[in-house]
Design brief:
heterodimer, A: about 280 residues, alpha/beta, Protocatechuate 4,5-dioxygenase, Chain B, 8-stranded mixed β-sheet, 10 helices, 10 strands, about 25% strand, globular, B: about 90 residues, mainly alpha, Protocatechuate 4,5-dioxygenase, Chain A, 7 helices, about 60% helix
Chain lengths: ~280, ~90
C-alpha cells in the first residue's frame, strides 16, 4: 500500500534556485532559510520517500493564456526543464511516475475533480526549485508527479477547492496498490506581489503557517480577493500549501519550519510536516 | 475601463490583454528574444499589438501595461529580455 510520509510547503522564488546552483547557500542574507533544510535532509534520509507529488503554479512556461487549466496533472515518463526567459538552462530531466499518475487521475476524476491530463509537460522552476531545496546536489532520488494549480489568470480556484483537491489526492494515494512512499510538496508563496516590494505581510504569513499546522480549515474561509488584499497578488500561491495540507490530513508533527523575510521580494517560508501517527 | 488589480478578475483586462500577454510569452524562446530586441516595434506589430500597447512595451511602462491587461507572470518575461547591446 502506498502511503504519504510527509508534506512540505516551501517558497520557490528563482533567487533560491540560482543560489543553490551557485552553491552560495551560506553566503546570502537569507542563509537561515537554507539552514532550516538541514533537518529536512536528515528526515529525507530516514524516511526515504520514493515519489514526490509537487503542487505548484506554472509561471507561463507549460501553460499560456491560450489554454489555461484550473488544475492539471502530469502523466508523463519524464519532465524536462526549459528556458523561462532567462536563457537556456542546463538541460535537466526528472523521472515521472506514470503508473501512480494514472491511478491518481482515475481516482480524482471519479471524485469529480476533472483534471487536465498532461502526457508531456515542461517542468517550471516552481517545481524544480522545491526539488533542489530537498536534494541540493541535483541528484533527485525520487520520481515526480507535477500538479499545477492556476495562479496566473483569474478566476482562480478557491482555497476550499484547493484543500479538497489535496484531500482527494491523499485518498487516491492511499488506494494505490503499489508500495510507494509519497512526499507531498506545495511550492509557492508566501506573501508577495511580482514587481512590488513591500507587499510582504509577516504577521499574516506567520498566522498562515500556524494555521497550516493546527487549523487549515480556517484558511479555506478566505476569499481569493481577501488573500490578495492581505498577501499580495502572488500570495495566492498559498493555494499550493493548502492542497498539500489537504493531502496530509489530520494531526501532524512539524519536523522543522522557518520564516525568513525577505527572500527577493517574498515572505520566504518552509514547513515540513508528517502525519502524527508516523 | 476599470483599473485592473493584480490577482483579481477584471473582465476588461482578461479580454484586452491577450495579444500583449501572448507576445510576452513568446519571449521564453531565445530566438524570439533576439528578434524582439532587434526590432521591438515590428515584433509587437507581428503579434497584433496596437500602437498604445507597443508604446507601453517599448517604454517598459509597467503601470500602463497593467492597465492594458498585461499579466504580471507574462510581463516578467519582458523584464528578462536583454537589450540589443547585451546580446
Amino acid at each position: 500500500m502506498a502511503r504519504i510520509v510527509g508534506g512540505l510547503g516551501t517558497s520557490h522564488v528563482p533567487m533560491i534556485g540560482r543560489t543553490i546552483a551557485a552553491a552560495k547557500q551560506k553566503d546570502v542574507p537569507f542563509a537561515p532559510f537554507f539552514e532550516a533544510y538541514v533537518p529536512v535532509h536528515e528526515w529525507l534520509r530516514k524516511m526515504r520517500p520514493d515519489v514526490a507529488i509537487v503542487l505548484y503554479n506554472d509561471h507561463g512556461l507549460n501553460f499560456a493564456l491560450d489554454n489555461m487549466p484550473t488544475f492539471a496533472i502530469g502523466a508523463a515518463h519524464h519532465y524536462d526543464n526549459a528556458d523561462e526567459g532567462w536563457g537556456q538552462p542546463e538541460p535537466r530531466r526528472f523521472r515521472g511516475a506514470p503508473e501512480l499518475s494514472w491511478h491518481i487521475i482515475q481516482s480524482l476524476v471519479a471524485d469529480e475533480f476533472d483534471m487536465s491530463v498532461c502526457r508531456e509537460m515542461l517542468f517550471d522552476h516552481a517545481g524544480i526549485t522545491a526539488l533542489d531545496l530537498l536534494f541540493p546536489d541535483h541528484d533527485v532520488p525520487v520520481t515526480t508527479i507535477p500538479v499545477v494549480i492556476n495562479a496566473v489568470q483569474p478566476p482562480l480556484p478557491t482555497a476550499l477547492r484547493c484543500y479538497k483537491l489535496g484531500q482527494a489526492i491523499g485518498k487516491a494515494v492511499a488506494s494505490f496498490a503499489g508500495d510507494s512512499r509519497v512526499l507531498i510538496v506545495g511550492s509557492g508563496g508566501l506573501s508577495h506581489e511580482l514587481g512590488v516590494f513591500g507587499k510582504i505581510n509577516e504577521p499574516f504569513d506567520r498566522l498562515t503557517m500556524d494555521r497550516i499546522e493546527h487549523d487549515p480549515i480556517a484558511l479555506t474561509r478566505y476569499s481569493n480577493d481577501e488573500i490578495v488584499d492581505l498577501a499580495g497578488a502572488q500570495g495566492l500561491e498559498l493555494m499550493t500549501w493548502l492542497a498539500m495540507r489537504g493531502a496530509v490530513e489530520g494531526p501532524v508533527n512539524v519536523i522543522n519550519s522557518v520564516y525568513h523575510a525577505p527572500i527577493s521580494h517574498t515572505g520566504g517560508a518552509m514547513m515540513l510536516i508528517a502525519p502524527a501517527a508516523e | 475601463m476599470t483599473k485592473p488589480q493584480p490577482g483579481k478578475f477584471n473582465l476588461d483586462a482578461a479580454l484586452g490583454g491577450y495579444a500583449l500577454n501572448k507576445m510576452c510569452h513568446s519571449l521564453n524562446r531565445a530566438e524570439n528574444r533576439v528578434a524582439f530586441a532587434s526590432d521591438e516595434r515590428g515584433y509587437c506589430a507581428r503579434y497584433g499589438l496596437g500602437e498604445e500597447e507597443i508604446a507601453a512595451v517599448v517604454a517598459r511602462d509597467k503601470p500602463r501595461l497593467f492597465e492594458l491587461g498585461g499579466n504580471m507572470y507574462f510581463l516578467a518575461k519582458l523584464d528578462r529580455v536583454k537589450k540589443v547591446e547585451e546580446i
